[in-house]
Known about the structure:
Strands 1-3-2-4-5 form a five-stranded mixed sheet. The longest helix is centred in the last third of the chain and has 15 residues, at 173-187. By secondary structure, the protein is an alpha+beta fold. It is built from six helices and five strands, in the order H-E-H-H-H-E-H-E-E-E-H. The protein is globular and about 45 Å long. The N and C termini lie far apart (67 Å).
Amino acid sequence: MNAALLALGALGLLVQPPGVTPSRSGSLPAGTQLARAKKPLLLGATTAAAILANRASFRDHLAMVKLTEAQRARWKAVRRPFTLVAVFGSWCGDSHRQLPDLLALDAEINPFIDVRYLGVGRDMALAPTAWPDGCPPQKVARVPTFYLFATQPGGGQKLVGKVVETPPPSRTMAAVLVDLVETQAHAH
């Protein structure tokens, strides 16, 4: 029976063996409660590896991302320096679905595109110092939001575009982000 309890606990299920009555506080006697491990929120600057380690949902959605060869080629062809900041909530379903598209693009190395990830809580609060150097802090109303900054002469950053929450119907976030970066690369 202990093996069965451990197996259920590994699935994140709270289990109670037969014949054990919870105490008034709702807890079970020592050794019989396998509590669901609560995942910590990712807050502030983080990495693609930390995002993927944080929630299985990010990994599952990344496994479903299908970048086209054209998207890969267009992403890699950008030769103007940009910083793409993804503000997301590790608790947010839209972030779980949309952020993996950027994770897939980020794996296609382009030294001209610096991708940064910033996690926020449900209050959308993000300290101004959390923004990458040179990127002016932006107000965050919904997540995920992808902010594209173009590097200016002297190294400063200027906001040149953003995508909020979800792409238009029948488009993927990867397609929208490639279009945004490519359009801005040709704008100057």
